[in-house]
Amino acid sequence: MEGVVYMRQILVAITGASGAVYGLRLVEELLASQYRVTLLLSRSGRQVVKHETGLDWQGSVEERREKMRRHFGCGEALEHYDENDMFAPPASGSAAPMAMVVMPCSMGTVGRLAAGISGNLIERSADVALKEGHTLLLVPRETPLSTIHLRNLLHLSRAGARIVPAMPAFYGQPQSMAELIDFMVGKVLDGLGIGHRLFRRWGDDAS
């Protein structure tokens, strides 16, 4: 039964890197596929969401939760906690196991995770995922990468995280930004072992 619970719950975190639309699109696809989603946003993540998409998810945690559910057209399938709520279920290793995706993942978040710092619920949830051996996917969105960034990403990879850089491919001849976004979301779904048809795979018949 633990495997079933694990596969039906996904935690998605959006931090302060550019590319908030990646995380939002991932949540859409997970909900459409009947997964339960816990959505966490850092303060910087909420600011980037507002700047890049116009979505104003300010207010109390209850108000933010309701705004998110209206945006995604869902009910209790989507849960949301404040980034400082260290008593939320994802903060405990004894809670039901979840796969976790940080999309996009800022270099500040990468650095704190690599150092084992749990300063908020996002960082603590990722720390729990690593220590419990659960799936953790990080989608860094930064360029260029410094030696410090690369070292931190390598450290996290060796600790068990899967690094999926935001690098959309062009071999499928994308015709829109939406297709580029879907490619990255599809690669994350691949990492989670979730089937999808968001992009044409190499070798598939173009017809």
TrEMBL record:
GO molecular function, one term: flavin prenyltransferase activity
Superkingdom field: Bacteria
Annotated FMN binding sites: 16-18, 42, 106-109, 141
Residues covered by the Flavoprotein domain: 9-190
Binding site for dimethylallyl phosphate: 171, 187
Keyword entries, A-Z: Flavoprotein, FMN, Prenyltransferase, Transferase
Entry-linked SUPFAM superfamilies: Homo-oligomeric flavin-containing Cys decarboxylases, HFCD (SSF52507)
EC number: 2.5.1.129
InterPro entries: Flavin_trans-like, Flavoprotein, UbiX-like
Pfam (any one): Flavoprotein
Reaction it catalyzes: dimethylallyl phosphate + FMNH2 = prenylated FMNH2 + phosphate
Function: Flavin prenyltransferase that catalyzes the synthesis of the prenylated FMN cofactor (prenyl-FMN) for 4-hydroxy-3-polyprenylbenzoic acid decarboxylase UbiD. The prenyltransferase is metal-independent and links a dimethylallyl moiety from dimethylallyl monophosphate (DMAP) to the flavin N5 and C6 atoms of FMN.
Family that this chain belongs to: Belongs to the UbiX/PAD1 family.
Protein name as annotated: Flavin prenyltransferase UbiX
Organism of this sequence: Syntrophotalea acetylenica (Pelobacter acetylenicus)
Classification of source organism: Bacteria, Pseudomonadati, Thermodesulfobacteriota, Desulfuromonadia, Desulfuromonadales
Gene expressing this chain: ubiX
